[in-house]
Amino acid sequence: MELMRVVEARRPENVGRVVRIRGWVRTRRDSKAGFSFIEVNDGSCLGNLQILAPVNLPNYESIVKHLHTGASIVVDGTIQASPAKGQATELVAQRLELLGDADPTLYPLQKKNHTYEFLRTIAHLRPRTNTFGAVTRIRHRVSLSIHQFFHENGFYYIHTPIITASDCEGAGALFRVTTLDPARPPLRDGQVDYTQDFFGKPTYLTVSGQLQAEAYACALGKVYTFGPTFRAENSNTTRHLAEFWMVEPEMAFYELADNMDLAEAFLKRILRDVLQECAEDMRFFQERVDPNLLQRLEQVLQTPFRRISYSEAIDILARAGRVWEFPVAWGKDLQSEHERYLAEEYFRGPVILYDYPRSIKPFYMRVNDDGRTVRAMDVLVPGVGEIIGGSQREERADVLEQRMREQGLDVEAYRWYLELRQFGSVPHSGFGLGLERTLLFLTGLTNIRDVIPFPRYPGHAEY
C-alpha cells in the first residue's frame, strides 16, 4: 500500500492509484444514499481530501458514522476523479481505521470561525486550523529560501551563541542567565558576586548574533546567522515579542550601497519563492485576511526600492500636513506611523532610508564624515513599515572606541571586538531581518503573536 500525503492525492495525475492516507477529520456528512463524505487533512496543504466511505465498510455503522471533527484516521482506498465542484479528486475508501477520537463536547475546534484571541489560548491546537497551518507552511518556505539565497551567494551559515556577555544594541533590555539562587545570592561588598555564577560573570540571552558574526565575516568574507533572539522589553504591542527569530548576514568589503543592494535582492527572493511555492496558502490570506495582499506583494517584487536619506524623510514628514502621534524632528527616531506613511502613502512602494543621526543608533555603526550621522539603513515596505535594519560597521578602532565610551559601555568587555579593527580591518556591513515581521508582511496578519508557534511576551510564557 503506497503512503501518500493529501497534497499529492489531490492531484489529477494520481487518479487510479491505490493509496493510504493518514490525517485528521475536518468534517463528516452522511448521505441517505448509503455512504458518508469525510473531509481529511494532514497538514501538507490548505485543501482537504474528500473520503467517500461506502456503507459496505465493516465498521461503517460502528465507527464511520460516529467520526468527530479532530479524530485521527487511516484510510486505504483508490483515488478517483471527483464530480464535485472545486476538487479534482476524492478517495473511495476500502478500509478505514480510527486511531484517536476527539470528544466533540471537549474538543474546542469545531466547524465555526474562531477569533485569533481565542486561538492564542490554545496554541497547542491552533496549528490544526486553516490559518495557522498556512502560516506554518509559509514560515517553512521563508526559512528554506533564506538558507538557499545565502548558500547560492557564497555565504557560510554560522551558529552564534545563545548565551552572551555582550549587549549588541546597548539598550540594556536583556534577560539575565544565572544559576545563582535569587533568594540567597552570594554577596561581595553589598553586591551580587557574579564571580560565583556558572560562567563567572553576568551573562544574558542574546539580543543579536551580529557581533560574533562580524568576527567570522572578517575571516571568511560572507557569513550569516539565523536563530532566536531575546529582548526583555515590556512591550505589549502587536509588533513586539520577547523571543523572535532573526537572520543576520555580515559581509566583509561591503559598503552601505552594497548592503542595500543585498537587502533588496534578499527580500525579493523570499517574496518570489513564497508567491510561487505557496500559491494556495497565499490565495487563502488574500481571500480571508487582506484583499489587497497579492497586489501589494507583487508591487514590492516588481518595484526598484527607492533610496532617500533620513534627513530627506524628515522633510517629507514635516510637510505632510498631518498631526503625528509622535512629533517629527531631526534627531528623533522614526515611529511606525512615519515609516508606513512613507512606504504606503508618499512613495507607495518599498523605500530604504539611510544616514541616521549618530545619537539614536548603536555604537557599531560607521560615523559619516559630517560627524552627525552614521551609515545606517532601514528598509520600509507597505503594510508593515520597517522590515530590515542594518548598517555599514565602524572599521576604525579609534572611532569605535570613542563611540563605545559615548554610550557608556565597558570598553574592556568589547576588547575582542576592537581587535577585529586592529588586525587587518576592512570595511564591512550587515543587516537584520526579523522572521516574524516578514511573516506579517507576507500574510497580511496584524498581530505578531499569530506568526510564531508559541509566542513569548510580557506575562506569557506558556508551553
Write the layout of secondary structure elements.
Elements: E1 2-3, H1 6-9, E2 18-31, E3 35-41, E4 49-54, E5 72-81, E6 89-100, H2 116-120, H3 130-152, E7 156-157, E8 163-164, E9 176-177, E10 187-188, E11 191-192, E12 203-205, H4 210-220, E13 222-230, E14 243-252, H5 256-277, H6 279-288, H7 293-302, E15 306-309, H8 310-318, H9 336-346, E16 351-357, E17 373-381, E18 385-392, H10 397-406, H11 415-422, E19 428-434, H12 435-443
Parallel strand pairs: 1-2, 4-6, 7-13, 15-16
Antiparallel strand pairs: 2-3, 2-5, 3-4, 5-6, 8-12, 9-12, 10-11, 13-14, 14-19, 16-17, 17-18, 18-19
Tell me about this structure.
The chain is α+β, with helices and mostly antiparallel strands. The chain has two domains: 2-100, Nucleic acid-binding proteins (OB fold (Dihydrolipoamide Acetyltransferase, E2P), Beta Barrel); 126-171 and 207-450, Bira Bifunctional Protein, Domain 2 (BirA Bifunctional Protein, domain 2, 2-Layer Sandwich). Helices cover 29% and strands 25% of the residues. The two termini are 37 Å apart.
Tell me, what is the CATH class of the largest domain?
A: Alpha Beta
Helix content: 25-40%
**What fold name stands as the CATH topology of the largest domain?**
BirA Bifunctional Protein, domain 2
Oligomer: single chain
Using the alpha-carbon principal axes, give the shape. elongated
Overall radius of gyration: 27 Å
Number of domains: 2
Largest sheet: 8 strands, mixed
Mean pLDDT, nearest integer?
95
How much β-strand is present in the residues? Answer: 25-35%
Number of strands: 19
Label the structural class.
alpha+beta
Per CATH, the superfamily of the largest domain is Bira Bifunctional Protein, Domain 2
Distance between the termini: 37 Å
- Order the strands across the largest sheet as they lie in space: 7-13-14-19-18-17-16-15
Contiguous runs where pLDDT drops below 50 for at least 5 residues? none
CATH architecture of the largest domain: 2-Layer Sandwich
Count of runs of 4 or more consecutive helical residues: 12
